[in-house]
Design goal:
Two copies of one chain form a homodimer.
Chain A (H helix, E strand, L loop, with lengths): L15 H8 L3 H8 L7 H14 L5 H8 L4 E6 L10 H15 L4 E6 L3 H12 L5 E5 L7 H7 L4 E4 L11 E4 L1 H14 L5 E5 L5 H14 L10 E3 L4 H14 L5 E4 L2 H13 L9 E5 L3 H5 L5 E4 L2 H18 L7 E3 L2 E3 L5
Parallel strand pairs in A: 1-2, 1-3, 3-4, 4-5, 5-11, 6-7, 6-8, 8-9, 9-10
Antiparallel strand pairs in A: 10-12
Helix pairs in contact in A: 1-2, 1-3, 2-3, 5-13, 8-9, 10-11
The structure holds a DNA duplex.
Amino acid sequence: MVEATRSGNGSARPTLEQVAAAAGVSRGTVSRVVNGSPQVSEAARASVLEAVQQLGYVPNRAARSLATRRADSVAFVVSEPESRVFTEPFFGSLLRGVSKELSASGLQLVLVMAWTAREHAQVEQYVRNGHVDGAILVSVHGDDPLPWRLMENGTPVVMSGRPQLSHPSLPYVDSDNVEGARAATAHLYERGRRRIAAITGPQDMSVGVDRLAGYRKALRGRRGVPRDLCAFGDFSQESGERAMRQLLERDPELDAVFAASDMMAVGAMRALRAAGRRVPDDVAVVGFDDSETARHTDPPLTSVRQPTELMGREMTRMLLTLIEGGSTTTDPVIVPNELVLRGSV
Amino acid sequence: MVEATRSGNGSARPTLEQVAAAAGVSRGTVSRVVNGSPQVSEAARASVLEAVQQLGYVPNRAARSLATRRADSVAFVVSEPESRVFTEPFFGSLLRGVSKELSASGLQLVLVMAWTAREHAQVEQYVRNGHVDGAILVSVHGDDPLPWRLMENGTPVVMSGRPQLSHPSLPYVDSDNVEGARAATAHLYERGRRRIAAITGPQDMSVGVDRLAGYRKALRGRRGVPRDLCAFGDFSQESGERAMRQLLERDPELDAVFAASDMMAVGAMRALRAAGRRVPDDVAVVGFDDSETARHTDPPLTSVRQPTELMGREMTRMLLTLIEGGSTTTDPVIVPNELVLRGSV
DNA sequence: CCTACTCGTGAGAGCGCTCCCGGGCTAGTT
DNA sequence: AACTAGCCCGGGAGCGCTCTCACGAGTAGG
């Protein structure tokens, strides 16, 4: 069998067999060394490693996958019907965390994006068909059955953000939105503000609910402080502007506002300026997300930062554990948020 | 051989062999049908398709890869040492274009990120080792030999943005920066501005060079219009602020400024405000990139938009052509920019 | 009527790897 | 000295697919 010495494929990648020949051992032994099995003598291991080095051997992913029946890759699924994904650093940062954590394990990161309903269905097919060992799902909508469909299929899945309908044991990683909102609001209080309004997000999303809960929690038990001075938005700048106008109408004396997203905070600042209020002199503002925009507003926006990269890492770690253990459920992980102080308070 | 009926693997995926059995043909014929070969009779094709449908057959990627010696996937390589990648919509939008174009061809999108020098080296290894059929490289630095190293290796590579050192026939897709800058500057002129300054980017990057060239081109031949009223920045907000202060010092009478990035434009607006100038009444401002931030400044920033998603699609198309043709070089593609009018002019 | 060619098809031979069984060897036990 | 228990190691089998080759049947040409 000299087929190893077939035609010169240009950048011919050596195979296990060739390494084995060079090292004077068998294919099996080389495989054992490459995969770190302890069942190899020191001598054999050394000569194999030498041959590997010499020939520049790299295992063939496809062959390994075929033999092990694993895909050695995970999918990062962005199933966002809107096109404004990625305008926030959130995804990129998450992705970086995932990438970093994954690179150590040798798994590939396959990016899957779905906007249309048809693409959405394809994603499900794709993942179910075993092209990946597990999936990280971001920006999944509340009524989307995708995660459960995949779990039923036996595919390990991890989500970002607590799902609204808390399904039994759907693995997820989230930041402590309640505590973040509480800390932001408390900070306003500690800086002497007493009429603190809130612009919160949709109450059919866990972030919306949690951030409002945090706001209320911070004000609970404080004397002479209104706790229900809140208006609802949809996280967009326009909705923030609108909400702010309503709030000013309801209480022209308000001296601070907690916005559940930076975009809404930006809208609020615009409305405040239009109403002749100065930030932070007349009204202090805090946002949430610590987006890029927060750094460039005038004044720069104090905001709650989610450790997005860390969240990516945690999601990955969780997923790898699930994949290894062959399980599909595990306890959620909640990571702490941090208040970033800037000029708007 | 009943090994097809081995243990019930839960979600046992059917193999070619099983489909063949169900359809009453041989493996080879099924393969031909699945791969769209014309060498199949209508009868055979029909019964195979029926069996495929019935059993829910999906080809095993790894097996196919192994047999064809292709990876059936392309890498999207982000080799950015800085951590501020993805804060701009640029990457996300590019990625979306790539993803859309790729999904039609059935290739996988593998995301590879490299920040540290070590990761950087790993990326090269990774791509060279044939784990992917080609690579899309974004944010490659001028002195980075990565693209050429890969090309020498025979790997098809496509870059975003014209490389500084215009190397013979390195495939790339870029937007028409010269024309974009020219149009932006011309727009300022047409609105009656006559003392138009520029804040340009580093001149060791093609975007920096091109955008300055466009600015100069717009003003060339206009009487009584200064053409060298420019200061340099590094695309950051701080540098824009600094440059604006310098410009105001050099010409307190200037009535417009073209900034080669939105971030620098934001910095410029801040410096203008600090100097008591109103935007756009006293000084008009245009930016470049049409970033998310541009929409949220006060006033909203007029800016040049690059068709990033289209660029992603073009890059992908180019890469697929290269992969198919077995070539590594092709002519660049330049896509047009668009001026987005907002309140800052 | 025989040869030549085309067309659809079946089947063997891999692609490069892992897994597992069994054999040879050494060391420890009776 | 014979026997068992480990430890290494070799190599067969197989993962699911593509590719090539050859064969039989049909059609055309001489």
